[in-house]
Structure formats: structure tokens, C-alpha cells
Amino acid sequence: MLIAGRYRLSESIGRGGMGEVWRAYDETLGRPVAVKLLLPQDTDPTATSRFRLEAQTAARIAHPNVVGVRDFGEHENRLFLVMELVEGDSLARVAAQFGALPAERVARIAAEAAAGLAAAHRQGIVHRDIKPGNLLLDADGTLKIGDFGIARFLDDPGAALTATGQIVGTSLYLAPERALGQPAGPASDVYALGCVLYQLLTGRPPFHADTAVAILHQHLDAVPVPPRELGVPGLPPAFESYLLGLLAKDPEHRPAAQQAADWFADGAWQGRPEPLPEATSPSRGPAVVASASTAGSQVGGTSSPTTYMLPSAQGPASTGRSGSRSRSGSDSGSRSQSRSRSGSRAAGPARPGSLALLVRRPRVAATAAAAVLFAAAMLLGMLWFAPDNTATEGTKSEAPPSPPASASTSPAASIPSPAASPIPAGAETDGALDAERDEPDEAKLEQEQEQEQARLEQERLEQAEREQEKREQERQRAVPQDDDDGDDDGSGDD
């Protein structure tokens, strides 16, 4: 039988509810083709329009995983569609013949089927009838999606030409949202593909019952049994987890067709460990760098000071600074740079001089001044209240010698007092010797007092120096936090 003067039909290779597929030969181009003839449709007035829509839909997609359209026309009041001939079986026949397939082969089928669906979705086309019978394998094992008979355009929901309220598709592979009567979308095709992959792995669909209505209820409410619990050998956990994600009840929780194609094509289904993400450098945000050597190897091989975030800067108590930290990315970058500068200062700061320390820290200056005034007051008080021995010593050294006992200056002096005790002849000599002995004792006492005062003054100076060093250490530990606060205030002023 010759169609349109160029397509010679040889044998029938398939038949559906709307058309019959023939193996044919294009005598004009000299190549084998498949010709689909529309069957007489006395009870379906939309059959002609639907057949024409299938041809237009498939013609918009040019992809190696989609059956290509070659020609479309009419012969003896019958529409025909010419497509590329796929020399192979459908997945329905493969599953019936071999049962469950190995995970590696199913992963390849998943990658190619998802790629074909992604090409259709990019053209705004939803297949709506993904099932093993519409997924074909050619001679070299490449999968091709066929039969766009009930497909619809996303930009023209009414183009599907189905009766109002009618659910089209196969119940075993129907998405939950379609079971609720909602329009089909790209996620519906992804769900149907997940059902097909589940069946290829386990040898049975995820949901099955005696009636189509019962199957639809399972799509809505039941949870599929994980394939590994059904005894599927050698199935990686990553494959199983991703497959159950394709069967998510919520369309928004399913991956896109292109994402699924890339995931399976890249071999992620094997569950191989993935490299850890690179550590974020301090200039990109407030993240803490693990070590200076790691940071140096990541940023052009040059070493840079490591910045560590103080614990007080991360806790919930630092609410006053949290608002300013989230103002803008530029503020975050400037703060990171200031933290790097503060980190470099904290790594090995030079000890400041006394004058610089007094100028930078008013409290230190006030403490030092108070210590000096206290020491001066102590010295002044000790000098003021010390006994004056100078006059006594001068009087003793300048006193004239005692007159002889026989010489009498006045009559009264020679008259002894009745209450006075007799004074021996050598008493004055003994008193002079005692005064001479007391003179070095007083000098020694003064020397000891001066030494005590010097010791006290030295202790005060050492105490002041220790307090000064303690405050300097506290200041050095608080420098990163002070600089952080200063940067935050500066950013707010800008």
C-alpha cells in the first residue's frame, strides 16, 4: 500500500485506540519510516483534531530522546503521521520479558527519559501519558519518548481537546494532583517517570489494586514501599532516596526533569562521596577561618592573618551589634577587613611607652598621678613630724666646759637645794658620753626610716606597674571587640 505516492506500507507494528502504526519505506528519500494512520472515529468527533495536535506537538521537539516527526498529511480521507522508525522494543515488552532490571541500566534509562521530558517541557509541552509502552528503545539501546497523542501545551490548556472533567492517562502512573482533577504540569510527567523507574527496579508498579479508583486513592494517600525493602539487590541508598523524591505527593517537592537528567547522567545515583565545599575566606563574610595555612593556600597561595571571632560577638547578648552587622554586604566586608587588621595587631603588638600609654588611657594617667601625690604626701608628712635633733646636737657641741668645783659664780649657786640629789663629780662626763652614744643611734634611726620610706615607695611603684600591665593586657584582649564596635558605629554614621 502506497501512501501519498512515497510511503510504502509493509507490516503493522502496533495499534492503539486512535491509530495504527505501520513499518514503511520512504521511496523518495530512501529510508525506513514509521507511519501512523488515524483509525475511523465515528464516536469521537475530536479524534481528527487530537491527531493533528499530536503531529504539531511532536514536530516542535527536536531531541535525540524524542521520536522525531518526518511528515504529516491526508490520504483517502485518512490522516497520517510519518515518524522515525525505532528499531527496538518498548519498555513494557522489556519489563515483561526480563522482569526487574539492574540499577545501572535503570539509571541510564532514567537519564535519557528525563532529558527527553526536559526538552518537551522547554517547548511548553506536557506529555501526560508517560508509561513503559510509550518509552521505546532503539537498536543501540537509546531511549526515545513517543506517542504525544494526549499531550497539552502549557500556554494553551484547552489544546488537549479532552472532555470536561475527564482524567486522561494511565492510572498506574497518574500523579496525585491529576487524580484530584487539577491540570497536568511538568511535575506530573516527573511523577509518572518515577513510577516507571520503580516498576523497572522492583518488577511491579508502586501502587496497584483491583480497580482504577482504588489505585488513584493510593496515589493520593499511600506511601510507596522502599525498593530495598522489597529485596532489590545492589541498589544504592542514594538511588532509592532520589526515586522516592520523584514520587513525592506535593509537585513542588519533586525535582525538575532537567535536574533528574543531570543527576542520573553524572553518576550521583551511585552515592559516591562528593568533595566538601571550600572554606569561606574572611573577606566574604563573618565566617571563622579554621587555620592560617588553609586560608593562605586558598587565596593565591599567600598567607594572611587568621581572624577568630570572639565568643561574645556570637552570643545572643550582642543584640546591639547584630542589627548593624546585617545592614549591607559592603559593611560586612569593611568589618572583615577591620577584624583582619585587629587580628594582625593582636598577633604581636609592641609594648607602648609610658608616655603613649598615659596619653591613650586617661584612667592609667589618673592612677599614676594619684600614686605620685600619695608618695609626696607621705614624704612631706614624715619630714614634718620627724624630731628636730639638729638644735640639740648644736647646743651640746657649743656648750662651754663646766666651771671647777671650787669656783662659784653666785652665792645662790653654792647653796645646795634641799630636794636636789648629790651629783657625783664624773656625772657630766658620763652625760656627754651618753649624748655621744645617742648621736649615732639617732642617725641610724633616720637612715632606717629613709630606707623604710624608700622600700614603701618601691613597693607602691611596683604595684602601680603591675596594675598598669594588667590593664594593658585587658586592653589588648578587648582591642578586637572595641575595633568591631567602632567599625559598626562608623558604618552607621556613613
Give a brief rundown of this model:
The protein has 494 residues and is α+β, with helices and mostly antiparallel strands.
Structure description:
This protein is α+β, with helices and mostly antiparallel strands. Among the domains are: about 1-85, Phosphorylase Kinase, domain 1 (2-Layer Sandwich), CATH 3.30.200; about 90-270, Transferase(Phosphotransferase), domain 1 (Orthogonal Bundle), CATH 1.10.510; about 435-485. About 50% of the residues lie in helices and about 10% in strands. The chain contains 16 helices and 10 strands. Strands 1-2-3-4-6-5 form a 6-stranded antiparallel sheet, covered by helices on one side. It has a two-stranded antiparallel ribbon with strand order 7-10. It has a two-stranded antiparallel sheet with strand order 8-9. The radius of gyration is 52 Å and the shape is rod-shaped.
How is the largest sheet built, in terms of strand order? Answer: 1-2-3-4-6-5
Beta percentage is 5-15%
Structural class: alpha+beta
End-to-end separation in angstroms reads: 85 Å
Shape: rod-shaped
Q: Runs with pLDDT <50, length 5+? A: 156-167, 279-352, 394-425, 489-494
What is the CATH architecture descriptor of the domain at 91-270?
A: Orthogonal Bundle
Q: Main β-sheet, in a few words?
A: 6 strands, antiparallel
Q: SSE order, as H and E? A: EEEEHEEHHEEEEHHHHHHHHHHHHH
CATH topology category name of the domain at 91-270: Transferase(Phosphotransferase), domain 1
Query: How much helical structure, as a percent, in the residues?
Result: 40-55%
Number of E-state strands = 10
Which radius of gyration do the C-alpha atoms yield? 52 Å
Number of helices: 16
